[in-house]
Specification:
alpha+beta; 99 residues; Trna Endonuclease, Chain: A, domain 1; 5-stranded mixed sheet
Amino acid sequence: MVNRLYNRGRAKEYRCMEILRGEGWVVGRSAASHSPVDLFAAKDGKVLLVQVKSGKARIKSEELRELVKWAEAFNADAEVWHFKERGNLQKRRVSRTKG
């Protein structure tokens, strides 16, 4: 069961990487890190940190606080990307750089 869930989550992360690369971002994945950041992306001097969720998974408040803290440390924007039912992707900005 755990392997199946991990594989499903990893597939969603790779899908997000494809989307970002298609938009011109340079993207890296934080594989099995258990950190609040699944994907690191950079483009035109901007940095984007992404936490990917799918299905009924929700970001916990502590995980969200950590994601925002990381965004501040990296002077980055942070978003939660959630694959809802039927693969619909919802993007939610949780931290924005100043300036």
